[in-house]
Specification:
There is one protein chain. The chain is mainly alpha-helical. 53% of the residues lie in helices and 4% in strands. The longest helix has 27 residues. The chain is globular, with a radius of gyration of 18 Å. The N and C termini lie far apart (46 Å).
Length: 279
């Protein structure tokens, strides 16, 4: 039983770094997902994206950040919470019934729920569904970067100053980019190297709900924060320690993204003309 005083804490403003996995990681997640789409999902995604591909649109929600038209989506990329929550406390905060009328998405969890709902809604226009698809591809990747479900008191690691191979950096930015880029893969090479889930893993990971995804990232924060406390000057030893976590999380994100899309597009969607990329 958790005390009522423990509350989910959201940032009042965006953290310094929000680009989880960077271009490389997001595109690898999307490529892995493509490898596991059902025939029906593959057809529908291709119809909706037209000349684009899932890897190419996976970074679109980051690319539109500077456009005032999309300023309301800034908090969608992360969810930062108080420390010390067990799964029951964590999940209860996520699934608490919103006041009516339901508010617009304000964090990664509520945004994921909304875009999944929009993709299933026959009343949504082609452009609205395309917008939802692009955000779904992106946000599944975001929430698998552990520090995008990090601690509120240090802004998801943004306030924790460290160094990476002699260069000053904050803890969050190292996980967003440096660790992903360290092996020197292209996104296609990364997807090929990481896409080795067993049938049993695929079945389980696609069965897990979004609260489980987020809690896994939240739990991974514990050793990540501990590493910065023990020695904030990260050198080449850091990648062998945490590289397997990066690989696992990118793989899980790709497998789970495919599972969500397979579920959404299991039934034929109402016929609509292919939409141009959302502006």
């Amino acid at each position: 039983m958790f005390r009522k005083s423990i509350a989910l804490v959201l940032f009042s403003c965006a953290p310094f770094s929000l680009f989880a996995w960077g271009v490389l990681g997001h595109r690898a997640v999307a490529r892995i997902a493509e490898n596991h789409l059902s025939a029906a999902a593959k057809r529908e995604v291709a119809r909706m994206l037209g000349p684009e591909t899932m890897p190419l649109v996976s970074t679109w929600p980051d690319e539109i950040r500077s456009d005032p038209q999309y300023s309301s989506t800034a908090p969608w990329h992360y969810l930062n919470v108080a420390t010390g929550l067990d799964f029951s406390a964590f999940a209860a905060q996520l699934t608490a019934a919103p006041a009516a009328p339901a508010p617009a998405p304000t964090n990664a969890y509520t945004a994921l729920q909304q875009v999944r709902k929009d993709l299933k809604d026959p009343k949504k226009t082609a452009d609205e569904k395309l917008f939802a698809l692009k955000f779904l591809v992106h946000l599944v990747g975001d929430v698998h970067q552990p520090l995008h479900v990090g601690h509120a008191d240090d802004r998801g690691g943004n306030n924790i100053m460290t160094s990476w191979r002699g260069r000053d950096a904050n803890l969050h930015s190292i996980w967003d980019g440096d660790l992903v880029e360290y092996p020197g893969f292209t996104f296609t090479e990364m997807a090929a190297a990481y896409d080795h889930a067993t049938p049993a893993q695929i079945k389980q990971w696609q069965k897990d709900d979004v609260a489980t995804w987020l809690f896994e990232s939240y739990q991974l924060c514990t050793p990540i924060y501990a590493s910065a406390t023990a020695n904030p000057k990260f050198d080449y030893h850091f990648y062998p320690t945490f590289g397997p976590v990066v690989e696992q999380q990118i793989l899980k994100a790709g497998i789970r993204l495919a599972g969500v899309l397979n579920e959404i597009f299991a039934k034929p969607q109402s016929a609509r003309p292919t939409a141009a990329a959302a502006q």
